[in-house]
Design brief:
2 domains, 300 residues, globular, D-amino Acid Aminotransferase, Chain A, domain 1, alpha+beta
């Protein structure tokens, strides 16, 4: 039976229960991470950038003044132990911290905080991932740090993303692209975005109201390591339409080509050469075939 980690103990998944009035279920007050592990040739698991994900988890907790009750090493060890007991190699890992309190009301001071970790088998996030996806510019805008802390990976933040994604899918697209309040390109509902123009890789910068993704950072480092020019700056909406290539990055999305935006074909309707090159390098790294960034992998 699948095990999960809850408040320091490994328990059967079906026994890991909380009350229906739990604060974080009512108000979206939890924080979380998304982490991938990949199967190596010898079937061992390699967790991708575990330490960086754990650090971001603790940054989210600090922003929301949540005392998790554990240190980084303890949660990293819990994740490794969970993969071992469930005998998982390729998986999606979800650490989640939440207010385990059933009182009605917004006050969270001195409320119990629980930490939960699950790991599940996980394939492609997008059905058409390999062939590229169609995206729609959302009419909903991305919030900024004067509204909610964009750098905290908090449950409530993703209500904005859900609205954008619903709109895109109702219009017949695979995913949304979200603009910031000032009209510049921000990101996808759960992904960062890159475009390629004249062999230059361009991605929205920190001032574009984006979550600074760990896969995003990995792609920047991979591209620069291959001698490619990478620029982080504001991107105008119309630059998406005239780009040579475009792709999403994210823990779930990995590297997903974007081949159509608002009905306009990108890179001839197929993954472009730069996207393919970066994607190939990325999968070589996470599978252990390329040891250029071997410090990114935690072998289980």
């Amino acid at each position: 039976m699948q095990k999960v980690w809850l408040d320091g103990e490994l328990v059967d998944a079906e026994k890991a229960k909380v009350g229906i009035l739990t604060h974080s279920l009512q108000y979206g007050s939890g924080i979380f991470e998304g982490i991938r592990s990949y199967s190596l040739k010898d079937s061992r698991a390699a967790i991708f950038r575990l330490d960086d994900h754990i650090k971001r988890f603790f940054r989210s907790a600090k922003i929301y003044s949540m005392d998790l009750g554990y240190n980084e090493a303890q949660l990293a060890g819990a994740i490794i132990g969970l993969l071992k007991v469930n005998r998982l190699s390729s998986s999606y890992i979800r650490p989640f911290a939440f207010y385990n309190d059933q009182n009605i009301g917004l006050n969270v001071v001195n409320k119990k905080i629980s930490v939960f970790i699950a790991a599940v088998d996980f394939g492609n996030y997008f059905i058409n991932k390999d062939n590229g996806i169609k995206c729609k510019i959302s009419s909903w805008k991305r919030f900024n740090s004067s509204i909610l802390p964009i750098q905290a990976k908090a449950s409530g933040n993703y209500l904005n993303s859900i609205l954008c994604s619903i709109e895109a899918k109702h219009a017949g697209y695979d995913e949304a692209i979200i603009l910031s309040g000032n009209g510049y390109v921000a990101e996808g509902p759960g992904e960062n975005i890159f475009i390629v123009k004249d062999n230059e890789l361009i991605t929205p910068d920190n001032s574009s109201d984006i979550l600074l993704g760990i896969t995003r950072d990995s792609v920047i480092k991979i591209a620069r390591g291959n001698g490619m020019a990478v620029t982080e700056r504001k991107i105008h909406r119309e630059e998406l339409y005239t780009s040579d290539e475009a792709f999403f990055t994210g823990t779930a999305a990995e590297i997903t080509p974007i081949t159509n935006i608002d009905g306009i074909s990108i890179s001839g309707g197929a993954a472009g050469a730069v996207t393919k090159s970066i994607s190939s390098k990325f999968y070589d790294i996470v599978s252990g075939s390329d040891d250029g960034f071997k410090d990114w992998l935690t072998i289980v």
